[in-house]
Amino acid sequence: MGVKRAKEEADAGAVKAKKKVKTASPLLDCDAAKAFFEEQGIKVHVPAGKDVNITPLRGFNCDGFAKRLVKYCDGKFPKPTPIQACCWPLIMQKTDVCGIAKTGSGKTLAFAMPYLSMSRLGVLEVFEQPCNSPRFVAMAPTRELAMQIAEVCVDLVKALTAGDVVSNCECSVMAEKCCVTHDSFLLVSLTGSLIRWVFINSHFATEVATVFINNKKQETTIC
Ligand SMILES: Nc1ncnc2c1ncn2[C@@H]1O[C@H](COP(=O)(O)OP(=O)(O)OP(=O)(O)O)[C@@H](O)[C@H]1O
């Protein structure tokens, strides 16, 4: 009898522990967050009166992220880069972010992951799904950078839709690259080309886009 009870208690403990692991916060705890900011030399400025949780992520599993995208990143990278760990939870709280990090620090995924996740889950408010105009517009100062951003976006969309990309890689002088899926439309453009693209595609009004990325050399503004 005693052995049976001990086994039952052990089983119950194991279930509890499993649940605890499952519900562990995706964010760093307070001390780890402080150490992370210090080690990485990260400064986060929050405007006065803004109520936002700035705690960085511990892994790729951010609240509200599409599971397929988390799996894609988990399979490709060991952990988020500092700009990703800090920007993802902020953007998922629907706050505007200006992220500054050096070249090659993973800024493209820092803004593309939240947009695609929110788009997929229907969290973005402007359009019902599917949408036929871009609501994600990324501007880049050089053609090379525009192509680089577009490639990352196309790979992510493929991971998200299991290859179900309606059309992609449309490349012209006007729009460097468009990527159309059932539920999102991403436009990556040279800053100057965007104005011409808007002019020619009269059905496209920039105010319908919910995510704007202004990608300068080391500074990315997301709003
Ligand atoms: N979490 C990660 N871990 C390791 N490598 C990553 C991670 N995220 C992205 N990368 C890789 O880092 C490289 C640079 O990424 P990315 O081009 O997004 O940087 P960037 O900061 O936007 O650079 P730039 O300022 O030139 O636009 C890419 O090869 C990308 O695959």
Automatic annotation (TrEMBL):
RNA helicase. Residues 81-172 form the DEAD/DEAH-box helicase domain. Keywords: ATP-binding, Helicase, Hydrolase, Nucleotide-binding, RNA-binding. GO terms for molecular function: ATP binding; hydrolase activity; RNA binding; RNA helicase activity. Belongs to the DEAD box helicase family. This is ATP-dependent RNA helicase. The Q motif is unique to and characteristic of the DEAD box family of RNA helicases and controls ATP binding and hydrolysis.
